[in-house]
Structures are given as C-alpha cells and as structure tokens.
C-alpha cells in the first residue's frame, strides 16, 4: 500500500508548504477507507470479523488516527461497527438492513439500466458477463462473484455519475456481507449469470426499458431469496 504512505505529509517540509496537514490526513483516510471497502467487495473481510488496528496500521502504512478516521467513514456507511471496549468489527447486517439495501439497489440500478448508456459503457456490462462465463466454466467461485459485482457496477457506470459510482462502491461492499449468509457455491452465482446475460443482451439491442424491467424482477427475486435465508435459515430455497 505504498500509495497510502506517499500521501502522508512530509514532516520536514516548511510550514505552510504543500497540502495542509489536516487535508492530507483526510485524503489518506479516504484512501484507507477505499482499500477496506475493496477488500469487503472481494469478500476478504467477513461479517463480525474484528479489525485489528495495530495490524492494519502496519499493513497499510498509516497512523492510528488516520485509520480511525477511515473507520468513521466506513461506520457512516454501515460497513463497520465500533463496540465499546471491544474494538471495530465488520458489520453483520440484519433483515431490516436487507430491505433498505434493496430499496437503494432498485432505485439506482434499475434507473441506470432504463436510461441506457454509451456503446462503450454497454460493452463494459457485456464484458462483465463474459468474465462471469469464463469463471463459471473454470469453477472459480471467487472470480465468478467478482464478475457479478462488476456487472452491477458497470450498469450504474452507464449513468456517468461520480456520485452514483461512489454510492455503488458502498453497495457492492455491503452486497458481499449479505451474501455471506448464503452457502455460496458456483451454482448460486450461475443462476444470476444467466439473467445477467439476458439483461446485457437487451442493453446491447437498445431495449433499455426491457433491461430495466428484467433487472427489477431480478432484484426482487434476489431480495426474497436472501430474506428467506435471514428469516428461516438454509432450509428454505425459493
């Protein structure tokens, strides 16, 4: 993580030279938060896992105060929680969080699909599907899950909005926390991959309304499936 180290303020610099210390510290904290968010998105951090401050300050090359500022940002996004006298833990979202999460996904993703995008952006959606196909063929669960994340991120990127892209990064990180509730195997993501293909085909054909309608139904089924696991455990498979 040299990127984080080089962003720290040079302690030997003349007073007032370069970026103000507080501004630089906040910029580094934002990069730390982005790195931890990326690890969540890739499934490397699991719900309820304790985040070691000494370990992370060493591996990321930042001060404890900077790390805590990053934790505060992730806490505001409901990705981590600080428990008094115990430390900071990866969030373990519940059913109410799941409902709210899908409200956001339906609002953002479906709108992006229905508005379409440039040929380049639509091609990126198709590329995510191709990555998913290759991962499924090789039985690579982690690559398949990552391709699924990229598919949904690429749909929102069609809107060409930095604010929506930032929001979607939070959504993708939280998505991985919800899916940890599922006993995930290749078949789990493969059934979504088939629907991803149909949505990508509709986008490529210029049928943006149809793509949005398919995505809306897709998200409703996904929510119902995960909610049944939260409420009834692994025994019920709709």
Q: Overview of this structure, please?
A:
With 238 residues, the protein is mostly helical. 70% of the residues lie in helices and 4% in strands. It has ten helices and three strands; from the N terminus they run H-H-E-H-H-E-E-H-H-H-H-H-H. It has a three-stranded antiparallel beta sheet. Helix 5 crosses helix 8 (162-179). The longest helix has 25 residues, at 208-232. It is globular and about 55 Å long. The termini are far apart. Residues 1-17 have low confidence and may be disordered.
CATH topology of the largest domain: Four Helix Bundle (Hemerythrin (Met), subunit A)
Radius of gyration: 20 Å
Output the CATH class name of the largest domain. Mainly Alpha
Helix/strand order: HHEHHEEHHHHHH
Q: Low-confidence spans: pLDDT under 50, at least 5 residues? A: 1-17
Number of domains: 2
The number of helical segments is: 10
The largest β sheet comes out as: 3 strands, antiparallel
Strand content: under 5%
Can you give the helix content as a percent range? over 70%
Q: Shape from CA axes?
A: globular
The largest sheet has its strands arranged as: 1-3-2
């Amino acid at each position: 993580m040299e990127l984080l180290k080089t962003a720290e303020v040079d302690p030997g610099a003349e007073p007032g030279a370069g970026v103000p210390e507080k501004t630089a510290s906040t910029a580094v904290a934002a990069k730390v938060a982005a790195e931890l968010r990326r690890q969540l998105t890739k499934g490397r951090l699991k719900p309820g896992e304790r985040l070691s401050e000494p370990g992370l300050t060493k591996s990321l090359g930042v001060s404890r105060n900077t790390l805590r500022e990053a934790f505060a940002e992730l806490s505001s996004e409901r990705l981590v929680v600080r428990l008094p006298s115990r430390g900071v833990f990866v969030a373990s979202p519940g059913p109410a969080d799941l409902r709210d999460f899908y409200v956001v996904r339906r609002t953002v993703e479906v709108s992006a699909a229905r508005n379409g995008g440039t040929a380049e952006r639509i091609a990126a959606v198709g590329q995510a599907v191709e990555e998913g196909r290759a991962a499924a063929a090789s039985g690579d669960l982690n690559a398949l899950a990552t391709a699924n994340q990229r598919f949904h991120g690429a749909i929102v990127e069609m809107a060409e909005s930095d604010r929506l892209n930032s929001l979607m990064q939070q959504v993708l990180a939280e998505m991985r926390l919800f899916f940890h509730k599922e006993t995930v195997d290749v078949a789990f993501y493969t059934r979504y991959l088939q629907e991803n293909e149909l949505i990508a085909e509709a986008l490529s054909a210029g049928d943006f309304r149809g793509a949005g309608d398919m995505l809306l139904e897709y998200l409703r089924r996904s929510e119902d499936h995960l909610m049944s696991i939260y409420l009834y455990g692994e025994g019920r498979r709709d």
